[in-house]
Amino acid sequence: MADPLLSSLCRICNISVPKYKCPRCSLQTCSLPCSRRHKTWYACNGLRDPTVFIPKSELVTPFGVDHDYNFLHSIEHKIERKEKLIIEERNLVERAELAQARGVDDGRKRKRESHGDVCIKRELEQMNTKVIKAPKGMGRNMVNGTIWSKKRRSIHWQIEWILEGNTRVLGTAVGKNNLGEIFTEFRELERMSKMTQEEKISERQRRAHDDKLRQTERARLSGWTGRGLIATPVMQNLETGTWSITPSATKDIQDDPLESAIQTNPHPQYHLYLHRPHTPLSFPKVLIPLDQTDTLSDALRNRLILEFPTIYALEQKPDDLPKEFMLERDFWTATGQDLQDTNTNTSTSGSLSEDEDIEEGEVFSDEDIEEGEVV
Fold first, then answer.
1. DSSP class of residue 3?
2. Cα–Cα distance, 351 to 360 (Å, whole number)
3. DSSP designation for 349
4. Where are the beta strands (DSSP E) in the chain?
5. Which residues are 20's β-sheet partners?
6. Which end of the chain is more exposed for a tag (fewer CB within 10 A), N or C?
7. Is 351 exposed, middle or buried (0-12, 13-18, 19+ CB in 10 A)?
């Protein structure tokens, strides 16, 4: 039997009969390794070139029809893939917004604003707080978990905590809680997150034991029953001499000395500061001192916020801040603005006004604007 011609064998190994043909360069290969090797040797991507010249005689053939159909189908597939990427995966735009930009009515009902968004907007208007939304797809926008708490009837804020060493940690808090309680809860959650599973179990057991001891001591000191009720079937009023046979069942938490001790105390070793966004790059970071006994909502009144508040927890007092920080009153003094009253947020010069705008040509710090953001 005569040996096969070299031209009829695989053009890479020259051993086996070819089974495959490259759609781009028409090179014939016998296996997947040979096909991969030919792409390396000839710098071929293996994709069909839709712009290659085809003779007129081949256009009306099944090959010509398949060539055009596959080309158009590949375009549709790429468009669908890109739409899924920017709409579902990266949440850059809504489907209705994309259809409106193309001038096409997709026949779908426009998405109405949710009840929570309406409540948040109304609450922000009452607080005179302006929240600047970052463009969709930006990191700060995607991690923003601020929602409306229906149970507490308040905004459940996403908070960015900046701790010592410039450590950035995200947390959440209800606007009606005071800052001391919020910071205590945040520190406790942060501590728990660093525990092992065995340490968490031991911590829960210790807390349960402490709660039991606390309830026992409370009942001993105040004479309450296990349910915290005072049941006195017969009682005489010593002032009027009258008798009452109505059982009383009351519990005033404020009168409980142990309960008062449980209440969260502010952290004197830490000082909390609200970061003021949209300040010139030539200035240090501008911080606003916060009172830990104030609620979060009070601290954010008449303020400008970028997506969600950023709070610094520093050991330094307002008069001893490092050089990379400056107080808001010093910022306004440096920019030539007058301070009316620095004791309250509502009357402090530099708090948000309705017609406050960004000056033309003003440069902002990198922490305020992410890469690709448009202000």
1. P
2. 20
3. B
4. 20-21, 28-29, 130-132, 147-149, 154-163, 167-174, 235-236, 243-244, 271-276, 285-289, 304-306, 310-314, 325-327
5. 29
6. N
7. buried
Residues in the chain: 375
pLDDT, one tens digit for every residue, the chain (375 residues): 456 666 788 989 988 999 999 988 889 999 999 999 999 999 999 888 888 887 888 888 887 888 788 888 888 999 889 888 888 887 777 777 777 777 766 556 666 778 888 999 999 999 999 999 887 778 888 888 899 988 888 999 999 999 887 888 898 898 898 888 888 888 888 888 888 888 888 888 888 888 888 888 777 776 544 444 444 444 455 556 555 544 443 444 444 443 443 344 455 688 899 999 988 888 999 999 999 889 999 999 999 999 999 999 998 888 888 888 999 999 998 888 755 444 344 333 334 443 344 333 343 444 443 433 333
Contacts of 349 (CB under 8 A, 6+ apart): 332, 337, 338, 339, 340, 341
Contact 188, 173 (CB under 8 A): no
> Do residues 29 and 19 lie in contact, with contact meaning Cβ atoms separated by under 8 Å?
yes
Q: Which amino acid is at 158?
A: Q
What are the helix and strand counts (H, E) for the chain? 11, 13
**Strands, E assignment, 144-255:** 147-149, 154-163, 167-174, 235-236, 243-244
DSSP letter assigned to residue 32: H
- Residue among 264, 252, 194, 196 at smallest CA distance from 228: 252
Write the DSSP symbol of residue 85: I
List pLDDT tens digits, range 76-87.
999 889 888 888
91 Ramachandran zone, left/alpha/beta (phi>0; psi -120 to 50): left
pTM: 0.56
Q: Return d(Cα 139, Cα 168) in angstroms, integer.
A: 14
Q: Which residues contact 111 (CB under 8 A, 6 or more apart)?
A: 94, 96
